[in-house]
# Entry
Amino acid sequence: MKRHVIKSISDVVLPLAVYLLSYRLIFLAVNCIYPALPPAFSMGISAAGTLFILFPFYKDTRQRFSQGRFMPSINNKLLIIMIIIIVSLSCIALNFFMSGFIDSDRAYKAASVSLNSGNIIVRIISEGMIIPALEETVFRGIIMRRIFINNGKAAALLVPALLFGAVHMNMIQFIYASLSGILIGLTMMITGRLYAVYFEHVIINMTVLLFGMI
# Structure
């Protein structure tokens, strides 16, 4: 029992720690080498580098997870597309609702100002495409699957969502990202496909990004 608990914790803590440390170290290194780079560019490079570093964790998780799945995968492409659209719209609506509280959270306001600056093309590639690939690989592709293997469906749905919220480091984004993480996690459980949650994340980030330019 004790070994199982230790295994369950290490299965989550190790990839999460590698993700956080790698991203931060690469970001700092890029800023030291090219201090004039806009934040979005540095974020994109950091996300791409961290994704490469985490690939062994993802590969190992896929091999272990192949022995069991959340539930039988949905093969109807139209149904998968409908799920992606419904979840994406729900998360977008939640994002715009939570953004109404921006003035009540200094950390959220500072993060929003930082993210809403820089070249739009760079931001689309970085925030709209690369970062979603990294975050979904970490939280749904690795952590969610590992928790499911060790602890079952309920923990696999809730824990990654709460961790996803916590890494944003402010209360408003914690609430938004946690709730969104649950909805995105449900997509992962229902469809069994990582590409579905990636597309959801891309749609959400792209919509928020482009509406923020208006």
Observations:
- Residues 2-33 form the longest helix (32 residues).
